[in-house]
Amino acid sequence: MTDRIPGLSPEEATPEQAAAIEAELAARGRMTRLKWVQAHSPDVLRIYGEWFTLRARLLPVLGATAINRFCLAVAEAQRAEIPTGYFLRALSDAGVDPREPPAGDMETLLVTFGRHVGEGAGRVPDAIWNPLAARLGPAAMVDLAGFAGQMVATTVLANLLDLAPDPEILPYLEEAARKAVST
Q1: Rounded Cα distance, 72 and 80, in Å
Q2: Number of folded domains that form the chain
Q3: Of 78, 68, 82, which is closest to residue 33 (Cα–Cα)?
Q4: From the CB of residue 81, how many other CB atoms can be counted at a distance below 10 Å?
Q5: What's the pLDDT tens digit per position in 59-97?
Q6: Which contacts of 42-51 are long-range, i.e. CB under 8 A and separated by 24 or more positions?
Q7: Which CATH number covers residue 170?
Q8: What is the pTM of this model?
């Protein structure tokens, strides 16, 4: 990891950048390393923040665990360390072992869907798409497809920037690596 672009420091921020940082902090209460880099471009910070808008729309339909499992599947398929660590932490902190099989058909479908999205440039076979579409309907499937695109965009950006992971996700990445070696 080389941190191709350093995070923007608050002291260096232009008024537009400072306003974008304030908006992000007001919305989410914190800034990750990736967000500090995104803050160089307030538009990038805002656009990538729309991930949270789609997540909020899907939350009552899918639930947090299913969404986090889906995101982890995409991140792992994209070999994106920062998003992988984030979702390992989100699941672990919710009391869910990320390496245990998904609970129920919907989570299983979402994990499989996420892997196909991440591995196949968004190409998902009908055998996976159709059961999800039958359960979710057109509006939720469009939200899920848009969310999948946002997730891929985030993993690509994280990979392009080659950032070191935030210190708070390192233990989750290290634990996952230990478990992968022992299996």
Answers
A1: 10
A2: 1
A3: 82
A4: 21
A5: 999 999 999 999 999 999 999 999 999 999 999 999 999
A6: 42/16, 42/17, 45/20, 45/21, 46/20, 48/150, 48/153, 48/154, 48/157, 49/24, 50/150, 51/147, 51/150, 51/151, 51/154
A7: 1.20.1290
A8: 0.93
